[in-house]
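Re: beginner question about structure tokens

> Can someone show what the tokenized structure looks like for a real chain? I only ever see the sequence side.

Sure, here's an example I had lying around. Input first:
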Amino acid sequence: MDKQKILSEIQIKAVRSSGAGGQHVNKVSSKAVLSFDLLQSQGLSTAEKELLHLKMASRLTSAGVLLLNCDEDRSQLRNKELVIKRFLYLLETNLLVDKERKATKIPKSVIRKRIQEKRNHSEKKQFRKRPDF
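And the corresponding structure tokens:
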């Protein structure tokens, strides 16, 4: 993954934020919308593209474009910084390959302990019965 190349491929657009805020929200475009074309990227190898496409399928559009929004701050510049930071974090975490789980045997001592506890529980129940003379 070539970060500099990827950062040059993203497009950030400023749009008007929604929600409460009155006059300020209605006249200032402070929301940052980041778009990144995953399939056309030159900063990612084909294996990385396939892995990201698999892991982030729900976040991608049908054309394979990733869209991220940020309207947390009143400042357009701060929203751009936040959305870029979020984008890079998203790429790094989704590029990690999970370790394959190795199946392990249950220790014999654990099996013995479980059977002994079952036996003890059964005896406890037997002692609660009325004695048979």
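Each token stands for a local structural state, so reading them left to right follows the chain. The first helix runs from residue 3 to 9.
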